[in-house]
């Protein structure tokens, strides 16, 4: 199995990291930031996790991304696979998706590293 590095990030802080696969979660999926109860929370908080994972299409995206990583891992030049998971501020959707992908890929035998690039940054005011 391949080594996979997953980086969650916020597009509003810096450009997306160099990666084989980049998920842009900004427009297609509900943003917990718009709910004042969740604004200061992160993707590590239960309410945010539940909200993101119950958003229509997210679980299908997770399944498709796992299949995509598996396809990359089967390639002849597969070494490390770099995957970026990005949302606006890098604190909510990107973190939930990165953590969930990490769990699913570990269960399939991949060695996983997760970096939450912007999780520590203040909430973006928008």
UniProtKB/TrEMBL annotation:
Q: InterPro entries attached here? A: RapZ-like, RapZ_C
Domain RapZ C-terminal: from-to ranges: 3-120
Superkingdom of the source?
Bacteria
Show which residues constitute the signal peptide. Answer: none
Q: Pfam families per the record?
A: PapZ_C (PF22740)
Can you say what this protein is called? RapZ C-terminal domain-containing protein
